[in-house]
């Protein structure tokens, strides 16, 4: 396949605009914070403090901030209002290319690797892709008709993948609904279960290691961090670093199958992410996660499900303390969390139900992973 450089196809010429100069004008604005909604926001000029750049329909936007997230957006021109974008986007414009084809290419693992290879800044959200470097990256040279065919195929695959993702979300909701149906809400405890605190259910509570990940990802052990716990309470090992650690420290921060993992420090809305470590592999836990081992009064899957309910999420949001952009629930505060404690046989019944539902989730996830390889 023939390639050229992005700078050779990019027809975009940046044009700055100061919305404050037209305070009553409504703008269709493409900002990074609103990206996850899939739609631009509509703001009056006097609501937009800084300068923006003009964009138009079918411009492709690549986000400079933390390119590992791989935010790619096509300007939709949803309204009659002027379209503007944050300067945190790199704008690609070409009248000969199908914008959806370009967007699919920019979302590819190959291009994502390029975007993350030459960043500036230190760590995570502070890293930025450099427009001059991105301009030198390759882009395929393909006839428009072939682009359209490829785009149609990829869109169909995406729609199928999206349907499988919705299926997984429905199954997650089913598990949550079954939990509340069996055990009720808390602190109302309408079913009258015995109550206490998490402290009553634990045998060991420890923070993970504060050591840094190994350079070049060449450490002896895989390093389980807060981003490996999903908001819905699953273990996600698609992006795992490694670590070297002295043998004498290993028992203090290694995880084993059945450990409950609680994310104690994160942004306010993400503090309290909880999952059960369900792998046989020995991994090392990072310091922003608490390792919890339970006594025989509670199953880890039950406690995890309790902490992932909507009523527990609301409680955790209210409980966490915020400082310098990070929120925290320490080990003592975690152990003071109130909880109902149904008989173990009821907990086992719920865990059995969850395992059956998870089989369908796993099948859907495998399909998604295979489809995404195409």
TrEMBL record:
<keyword id="KW-0378">Hydrolase</keyword>
<dbReference type="GO" id="GO:0009307">
    <property type="term" value="P:DNA restriction-modification system"/>
</dbReference>
<dbReference type="InterPro" id="IPR000055">
    <property type="entry name" value="Restrct_endonuc_typeI_TRD"/>
</dbReference>
<keyword id="KW-0238">DNA-binding</keyword>
<feature type="domain" description="Type I restriction modification DNA specificity">
    <location>
        <begin position="191"/>
        <end position="359"/>
    </location>
</feature>
<dbReference type="InterPro" id="IPR044946">
    <property type="entry name" value="Restrct_endonuc_typeI_TRD_sf"/>
</dbReference>
<keyword id="KW-0540">Nuclease</keyword>
<dbReference type="GO" id="GO:0004519">
    <property type="term" value="F:endonuclease activity"/>
</dbReference>
<dbReference type="InterPro" id="IPR052021">
    <property type="entry name" value="Type-I_RS_S_subunit"/>
</dbReference>
<keyword id="KW-0255">Endonuclease</keyword>
<protein>
    <submittedName>
        <fullName>Restriction endonuclease</fullName>
    </submittedName>
</protein>
<dbReference type="Pfam" id="PF01420">
    <property type="entry name" value="Methylase_S"/>
</dbReference>
<dbReference type="GO" id="GO:0003677">
    <property type="term" value="F:DNA binding"/>
</dbReference>
<comment type="similarity">
    <text>Belongs to the type-I restriction system S methylase family.</text>
</comment>
<keyword id="KW-0680">Restriction system</keyword>
């Amino acid at each position: 396949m023939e390639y050229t450089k992005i700078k050779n196809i990019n027809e975009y010429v940046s044009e700055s605009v100061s919305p404050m100069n037209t305070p009553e004008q409504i703008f269709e604005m493409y900002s990074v914070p609103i990206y996850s909604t899939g739609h631009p926001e509509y703001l009056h000029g006097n609501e937009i403090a800084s300068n923006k750049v003009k964009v138009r329909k079918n411009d492709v936007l690549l986000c400079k901030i933390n390119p590992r997230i791989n935010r790619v957006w096509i300007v939709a021109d949803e309204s009659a209002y002027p379209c503007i974008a944050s300067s945190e986007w790199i704008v690609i414009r070409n009248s000969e290319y199908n914008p959806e084809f370009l967007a699919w290419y920019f979302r590819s693992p190959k291009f994502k690797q390029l975007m993350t290879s030459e960043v500036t800044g230190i760590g995570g959200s502070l890293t930025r892709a450099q427009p001059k470097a991105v301009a030198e990256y390759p882009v395929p040279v393909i006839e428009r008709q072939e682009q359209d065919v490829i785009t149609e195929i990829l869109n169909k695959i995406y729609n199928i993948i999206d349907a499988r993702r919705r299926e997984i979300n429905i199954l997650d909701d089913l598990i949550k609904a079954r939990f509340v149906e069996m055990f009720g809400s808390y602190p109302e405890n309408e079913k009258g279960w015995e109550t206490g605190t998490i402290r009553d259910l634990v045998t060991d509570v420890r923070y993970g290691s504060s050591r840094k990940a190994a350079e070049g990802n060449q450490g002896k052990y895989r390093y389980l961090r807060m981003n490996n716990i999903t908001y819905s309470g699953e273990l996600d090992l698609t992006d795992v670093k490694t670590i070297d650690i002295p043998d004498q420290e290993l028992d203090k921060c290694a995880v084993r199958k059945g450990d409950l993992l609680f994310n104690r420090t994160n942004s306010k809305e993400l503090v309290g992410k909880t999952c059960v470590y369900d792998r046989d592999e020995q991994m090392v836990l990072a310091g922003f996660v608490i390792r919890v081992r339970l006594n025989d009064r509670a199953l880890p899957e039950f406690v995890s499900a309790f902490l992932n309910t909507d009523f527990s999420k609301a409680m955790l949001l209210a409980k966490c303390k915020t400082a310098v952009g990070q929120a925290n629930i320490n080990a003592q505060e975690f152990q003071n969390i109130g909880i109902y404690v149904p008989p173990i046989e009821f907990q086992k019944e719920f865990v059995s139900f969850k395992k059956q539902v998870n089989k369908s989730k796993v099948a859907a996830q495998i399909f998604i992973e295979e489809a995404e390889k195409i």
